[in-house]
Design brief:
- The chain is mostly helical.
- About 70% of the residues lie in helices and about 0% in strands.
- It has 26 helices and no strands.
- The longest helix has 28 residues.
Length: about 450
């Protein structure tokens, strides 16, 4: 070296020592980024995690990694990494055992997660390991829950474990799913908000556990309480992706809280202008529009106007305009169907009323004159339902009679002929605990009847 470069051996040693300390300092700085940016909202440590990952990709492999991975570049293609694991009995288990060391954990988990993201066929390695009774669940859960685990490592371990469960659910039990979710949501846990969300979304990919997962405390809240205005686009996209997965479940299989989900999707369409977020939101609405409960909320919450407004925005993807127009047409068709007076009559004939769009102010404004048909037959049927034994039916009947009185020119006269006011006042005085909603709607109905009386008095000549 001295002959070629003119350096003394002592100088070369010093240069090597300086390089070593520089690398060590860079690694320490990258690790501290997790804590430095830990307070950011929406996507708490995403920037720090990306910087740390970049540093790991530039670093050399630690000495304590499994023998099967020595000589494998961390940035190598997925097939190269997969070949290193194939035929090496115990390589998967040894990789997780090496994660006891923080430096090895960063390197190993980054290598494996990148491999799986690049080529999903690599999940076969884990299926083979699980088939050989390798306790993948416990080894990775230990990494997630170990005291002092840095956020980057915890997020990678949680993503890896949940991805394996999502792709090979038959190897896991409901008790293990509960345990993982509880660990992810534990107060003071090592995972970031985005890391927890990533793991939950991966678990939802397994239709075997989807219903169970949605019932577990905190899961639905994590997904449905996201702020459409303040959350980062990646966090928001993940939440909508979770709803997209849920949209494939059979109608009624899950308690999806239609009003909350539709409001959230509407807010996303109002506030977000990230194309992938908008496109996925439109897709979710299309998937759910065939369900009556969702369709009613979409119509009642004015989603049609929000979707139509999107057509006047500037989008880079021309196909997005087609998606917007297509969804607008579908919602318009649902509006026409749900505003149909025939549908209201069908519900009257069934003898059981329930809250929905056909009992809204908009419906009555559009259809109040149609109640004149067949000598006010629908009103007579509505009045008869005031004597129903179902509290909801009686409450809706009171509400609708009030809407008829307020909206029809001869509403008060028709109601007087049917002696409806007397029955409404009886319901106002009901003392039954289950009639709380009935009493409220009866009071509002009576107020509308009396208001019309005072309006009539104003028209009497002086």
């Amino acid at each position: 070296a001295r002959a070629i470069w003119g350096f003394r051996p002592q100088t070369i040693f010093c240069l090597q020592l300086v390089t070593y300390f520089q690398r060590a300092a860079m690694a320490a700085d990258a690790s501290s980024l997790v804590a430095r940016y830990g307070a950011a909202s929406g996507e708490p440590t995403h920037s720090a995690a990306e910087l740390l990952r970049s540093e790991i990709l530039r670093s050399h492999a630690p000495n304590n990694i499994p023998a099967a991975l020595k000589g494998v570049e961390i940035g190598a293609p997925a097939l190269t990494k997969k070949a290193a694991f194939e035929g090496q009995s115990g390589a998967i288990a040894a990789s997780f055992d090496a994660c006891q060391d923080a430096g090895a954990a960063r390197w190993v988990l980054t290598l494996i997660c990148d491999m799986l993201r690049e080529d999903s066929s690599c999940f076969s390695l884990f299926e083979e390991a699980l088939g050989k009774q390798v306790n993948v669940y416990q080894k990775l859960l230990d990494v997630v829950t170990r005291p002092g685990t840095e956020q980057y490592v915890a997020d990678k371990a949680a993503w890896l474990l949940s991805s394996v469960i999502g792709n090979a659910p038959r190897f896991f039990t409901e008790a293990e799913i509960r345990g993982l979710v509880e660990s992810l949501q534990r107060q003071g846990g090592a995972c970031s908000e985005l890391g927890v969300l990533d793991a939950l979304v991966n678990l939802l990919k397994a239709d075997t556990f989807r219903a169970l997962l949605w019932k577990l405390p905190g899961v639905s809240e994590t997904i449905t309480t996201v702020s459409a205005q303040n959350a980062s686009s990646s966090y928001l996209y993940k939440c909508i992706f979770a709803v997209w997965l849920l949209s494939f479940e059979a109608e009624g299989a899950l308690n999806l809280q239609e009003d909350i989900l539709v409001k959230k999707l509407r807010d996303v369409l109002v506030h977000s202008r990230v194309e992938k977020v908008i496109r996925l939101s439109l897709t979710v609405l299309k998937n759910l529009l065939g369900r009556t409960a969702f369709a009613e909320q979409v119509v009642e919450l004015g989603v049609l106007e929000v979707v139509q407004q999107l057509e006047y925005e500037k989008w880079r993807d021309a196909e997005l305009y087609d998606d917007i127009r297509d969804l607008a047409c579908q919602i318009s068709a649902r509006v026409a169907d749900m505003s149909n007076f025939d549908r209201y009559e069908r519900e009257l004939k069934e003898g059981q009323l329930k809250w929905g769009f056909i009992h809204s102010s908009k419906f009555w404004a559009d259809n109040v004159l149609k109640f004149e048909q067949s000598d006010y037959k629908a009103i007579k049927m509505l009045a008869a339902l005031l004597h129903s034994t179902d509290p909801t039916t009686m409450a809706v009947a009171c509400h609708d009679i009030g809407e008829f009185v307020a909206g029809h020119p001869l509403g008060k006269k028709q109601i007087a002929k049917l002696q409806v006011k007397e029955r409404v006042m009886e319901l106002m005085g009901s003392t039954s605990a289950e009639h709380r909603e009935v009493r409220r709607e009866a009071l509002l109905c009576c107020q509308k009847i009396m208001l019309n009386k005072w309006q009539d008095m104003d028209n009497i000549p002086q």
